């Protein structure tokens, strides 16, 4: 069910939308919009002068497999 938003995401009117699942998030507040099921995971950032510092302590991972089912959307819809 994971979909890289750098491949399927579209930004318009300060909202990020996954075009595969049609989930959307407000990029100012990070709140879920519409029928979005999962929160948007983000890295901690800090602005220092003209630099933006990002803390990459690990990969951001969603817990999509809560029900124990290892079937992916691509498997389901093929």
TrEMBL record:
Keyword list, A-Z: 2Fe-2S, Iron, Iron-sulfur, Metal-binding
SUPFAM superfamilies (alphabetical): ISP domain
UniProt GO MF annotations: 2 iron, 2 sulfur cluster binding; metal ion binding
Domain of life: Bacteria
Ranges of residues in domain Rieske: 1-54
PROSITE patterns: RIESKE
Name of this protein: Rieske domain-containing protein
Native source species: Methyloligella halotolerans
């Amino acid at each position: 069910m994971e979909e890289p938003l750098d491949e399927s995401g579209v930004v318009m009117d300060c909202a990020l939308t996954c075009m595969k699942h049609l989930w959307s998030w407000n990029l100012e507040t990070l709140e879920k919009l519409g029928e979005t099921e999962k929160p948007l995971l983000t890295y901690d950032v800090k602005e220092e002068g003209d630099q933006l510092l990002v803390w990459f302590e690990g990969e951001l991972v969603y817990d999509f497999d809560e029900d124990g089912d290892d079937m992916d959307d691509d498997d389901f819809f093929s």
